[in-house]
Amino acid sequence: MGDRKYSIEEVTQRLGVTARTLHYYEEIGLIREVERTAGGHRLYSEQVTKEMEHILRLKNILGCSLQEIRAILDAEEQLTVIRESYHQEDSDSSRHSLLDQAAILLGRQVSLIEEKVAGMLEMKERFQERLDRVESKREGK
User: Fold this and answer.
1) CATH topology (fold) of 1-61
2) Tell me, what's the pLDDT at 1?
3) Pairing assessment for the beta strands 35-36 and 5-7 based on DSSP bridges
4) What is d(CA 13, CA 19) in angstroms, rounded to the nearest whole number?
5) Measuring CA to CA, how many Å separate 29 from each of 34, 113, 136?
6) Residue among 24, 69, 54 nearest 42 (CA)
7) Per-residue pLDDT tens digits for 17-58
8) pTM of the model
9) In 1-141, which ranges are continuous DSSP H helix?
10) Which pLDDT score is estimated for 140?
11) How far apart are CA 137 and CA 124, in angstroms?
12) Looking at the chain, which residues constitute the CATH 1.10.1660.10 domain(s)?
């Protein structure tokens, strides 16, 4: 599975998105550039496909904007660098500094998710109130 490349048709079917969406996400840098055949057709690796699945979860489940997704992906890249540096670092003070940086980045991610969840809960409450009114009228109250 690691070396297999997927055509754009396979990826769009697997992910449930259009080819234009994949092209656009590549154009704006949300997914890395993909390989191309001699004829110019895109070939997607399993890694890029998984990255796209992650982007779609952020968009569809959390309702993140493309700008928010970009910030999340940038933070994830920074966390990868921090993690690698942490494992190479011998100094306790340097490791502590790296942990501080990671905590800040992760705190921002948690805050974003909390904002999204709070918005969803508020919306749910509004719909629940409307449902309660409808149910009350149905019962003749």
Assistant:
1) Multidrug-efflux Transporter Regulator; Chain: A; Domain 2 (1.10.1660)
2) 47
3) unpaired
4) 10
5) 11, 22, 51
6) 24
7) 999 999 999 999 999 889 999 999 999 999 999 999 999 999
8) 0.80
9) 8-15, 19-27, 46-60, 66-88, 92-138
10) 84
11) 20
12) 1-61
Place of tokens 């997704």: 69
Mean pLDDT, residues 61-90 taken together: 95
Task: Write down the pLDDT at residue 2.
Answer: 54
Tell me which amino acid residue 105 is: L
Closest by Cα among 110, 50, 123 to 75:
110
**Residue labelled with tokens 């309702």:** 63
How many residues would you count in the chain? Answer: 141
Backbone angle region of 92, left / alpha / beta, with phi > 0 → left and psi within -120 to 50 → alpha: alpha
d(CA 45, CA 76): 20
Beta bridge pairs of residue 7: 43
What would the pLDDT profile of 77-131 be if each residue is shown by its tens digit? 999 999 999 999 999 999 999 999 999 999 999 999 999 999 999 999 999 999 9
**Measured between alpha carbons, how far is 93 from 83 in angstroms, rounded to an integer?**
15
